[in-house]
Amino acid sequence: MGFEEQHEGEIFTDISKIERNKQCKDCMLQSDGTANTNDYQKCECVIYQYPESKPGYVFDNTGKCEYYEKDE
What is the value of pTM for the model shown? Predict the structure, then answer.
């Protein structure tokens, strides 16, 4: 059975339209200046450094990050 048959009738989300990591936008921990952490929408930050990544609930904005600290 092919992909199309397996998912017939399903509606897919265009994840490129989702603003990822919204709560990270004004967090003081979003960047340590390295190439891996220079954008709040990326999976890494000061707390979650490669090879770790932010939890899915932070990435997709369904839960709060326990380390969030508002940047002044």
Answer: 0.70
Check: CB of residue 70 under 8 Å from CB of residue 37: no
CA torsion through residues 60, 50, 27, 19, sign: negative
Parse the chain into domains and list their residue ranges.
19-72
User: Residue 45 burial by CB count (10 A; 0-12/13-18/19+): exposed, middle or buried?
Assistant: buried
- Kindly report, residue by residue over 14-59, the tens digit of the pLDDT: 777 778 899 999 999 988 888 777 888 888 999 998 899 999 999 9
